[in-house]
TrEMBL record:
Pfam families: L6_membrane. The gene is Tm4sf18. This is Transmembrane 4 L6 family member 18 isoform X2. Belongs to the L6 tetraspanin family. Keywords: Membrane, Transmembrane, Transmembrane helix. It is found in: Membrane. InterPro entries: L6_membrane. The chain crosses the membrane at residues 12-31, 46-66, 73-90, 129-152. It is a multi-pass membrane protein. It comes from the Eukaryota. One of its GO terms (cellular component) is membrane.
Length: 171
């Protein structure tokens, strides 16, 4: 009985984490709430991997059935988001549009005075740091929740308490 309550609780948590990942990934397409940068292809390349939208969002919703895949998909989101955070945003500097912090191995993250190199979109460094950090946190939590679900499901199967027969009234 306790594992049913725990499983249901984890499912609700996983669904809410997935929905938040979708929302946060969509926000990454609109720095400062403007559509211009997405339509003119002036976004960080890791935004186009759809890590929060597809892999940590939609695919994690399906992971209620496929928890093991949920670990892989959320792990993908975590890695891609970390890479996007370390690379820094694609922005316009005095030298034109490029990755202003590429090759710094993320050192720019601890020195906010360097962030002013990005002239456009306004506050794009803060935007990317906050949203990629949120995606890293959400997908990390999803990996943990999916891992717990896999352990619970495996223990049910191995201990003989897992039923593959659908009982009337369950669905």
């Amino acid at each position: 009985m306790g594992s049913w309550k725990c499983g249901g609780c984890l499912s609700c948590l996983l669904i809410s984490l997935a929905l938040w990942s979708i929302i946060v990934n969509i926000l990454l397409y609109f720095p400062n709430g403007q559509t211009f940068y997405a339509s003119s292809n002036k976004l960080t390349n890791y935004v186009w991997y759809f890590e929060g939208l597809c892999f940590s969002g939609v695919m994690t919703l399906l992971s209620v059935i496929f928890s093991a895949l949920g670990i892989a998909f959320s792990g993908y989101c975590l890695v891609i988001s970390a890479l996007g955070l370390v690379q820094g945003p694609y922005c316009r500097t005095q030298d034109g549009w490029h990755y202003a912090f590429e090759g710094t191995a993320g050192r720019f993250l601890t020195n906010s005075s360097e962030w002013t190199q990005c002239l456009e979109p306004a506050h794009v460094v803060e935007w990317n740091v906050i949203l990629f950090s949120i995606l890293i946190t959400l997908s990390g939590l999803q990996v943990i929740v999916c891992l717990i679900r896999v352990v619970i499901q495996l223990s049910k199967m191995l201990c003989g308490t897992y039923s593959v027969i659908i009982q009337p009234g369950i669905i």
